[in-house]
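Feature request, filed as a ticket because there's no other form

It would be nice if the structure record came with a short human-readable summary line next to the tokens. Right now we just get the raw output. Example of a typical job, pasted below so the devs can see what we mean:
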Amino acid sequence: MQTTWKGTISFGLVSIPVHLYSATQEHDVPLHQVHAKDGGRVRMKRYCEREETEIPYAEIAKGYESPDGRTVTLTDEDLADLPLPSKKVIDVLAFVEEREIDPLMFSKAYYVGVADKAAAKPYALLRDALVESGRIAVTKIALRTRESPAVLRVHEGTLVLQTCIWPDEVRPAAGIAPEEDVEVRPQELKMARSLMDTLSEDFDLSQLHDDYQEALQQVVSARLEGVELPHEEEAGEAPDNVIDLMEALRSSLRQAKGGRTGAAAEPEPEPAPAKKATAAKKTASAKKTAAAKRTTTAKKATTRKSTAPRKAS
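Raw output as currently delivered:
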């Protein structure tokens, strides 16, 4: 694995010489630009406007144009000599709970490896301390032409450095979510939770694959072989608006279950409160009527007994 960066982790007075290795790689079908008319390759040429000629890559530097139109040229040596403490040192600033870092800030991940055998013990010390504390380390690092905050955490027994964007680079979300008050009924929330549980059964993130790249490769292969391009069957039109949210949730739940065994049972619909009250009134009324009938019957029996003629002794 190719080394991306060489430097030192500074953990208090402890120094750990380390190398960084890119932890991720993106897979795609390599495409380049061609002339649509004849398929000729289109290449970008480095063209100097002042000399009106193409120049080699070795003569290219970075430049900055000021608001008044002046341009300064910055060479690779200028950028390499920037007075940055984080240029070769990953300085651990603090240890925080992972939930304190907004996931929107996370960027690229790098595996952290030891640079020599002497770094093994302090490396293991920092790694085990992070695991035991359940925290992540907040640091800063300068990679290429950019300094950025970063975090150190543990993944499968290996330290991982994940660069972040600066907090003020996260755009505010104000005005995007619905601003009006929306009432969500408890039964709707219960149904949504049931749907979430059903969809999550036996889910394995490692089984996900890139359908787009597979479909693109099929199209490329068909073009190369001169056969008809594959076509996906047209899906049915989605409804323009959800009229009955509860019915949509029930239908989604039935579809998600799809005959699964052990799936969460569909929540029973809430009985209408008005019907409950009516039923209670009817029951109370019936009980009162029955009690009144028993009282009337008892009174009649007592009256008959008191008015009946007594037998002669």
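Something like this underneath would help us a lot:
The mean pLDDT is 81.
Residues 90 and 262 are 50 Å apart (CA to CA).
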